[in-house]
Every structure is written in structure tokens, then in C-alpha cells.
Design goal:
4-stranded parallel sheet, 4 helices, 51% helix, alpha/beta, Rossmann fold
Length: 134
Amino acid sequence: MRLENKVAIITGAGSGIGRETAFLFAKEGAKVAITGRTADKLKEVCREIDKNGGKAIFKIGDVSKREDMDDVVNTAINEFGRIDILINNAGVNKDALVTKMTKEQWNGVIEVDLSGAFNCIQAVVDVMINREAV
């Protein structure tokens, strides 16, 4: 197992690429802390991982809110003791032509897709740099 004893935070893990990444990382031995905005989807991902012998936890969070990502990091540290990997997967898409996209739609995409990645990196970087090897 290539990721045995590693801990990964995966954003946007309730569906799509994030969900499949959580399954793959767990299959490869990682403990996964998943986040997203829909509890039911995250619970199902955790149930599936646990059913297949993996270890997963979830914390509801919106990547566009730094305090939510601080909570996700703290939850992962409290449960697993370390963080080795961050997968910045969360993203949104507003299905609108640029000529019809509103400023609010644009700002929503930027807040999740760009600022969200920045928030996650800031929330976890000190933990990852200063951690002791386990």
C-alpha cells in the first residue's frame, strides 16, 4: 500500500473526482479526512471507505471560508495526529457564457476555485511543515 500511514485531507469529496480520490487514497492505505458542503454525501463516502477496511472522517466545510478550513485541519489533527497530503479538489462551475455571467456568479467561482485553495493551503501549511514524523 503506497500511502500506508499517510493522512490526507480531500476537499470537495462528496462527489466526482474528490469522492473517487478519497476511495483510491483509502484503498492505498491513507487515512482520509474529507470535506464538502453536503453531510449526506460525505457520510456515504465515509461509510463506503470504512466498509472496505479504510479509515475516513468528515467535517462539513466551505473552502471559501478560512475558519471552516481551520476546523477541518483541527479535526484531522485531533483524529489522526498529522497531515501529509492536501488535495485541493473543491470547485464550482457556473454554466453561463461570459457575456451572460453576472459579477456575483463570477465572484462565487473565484471564491471557491481560487480563494478556496489558498484558504486550505494556509490552514494546513504550518502543520505540514512543522510535523514530526510518526
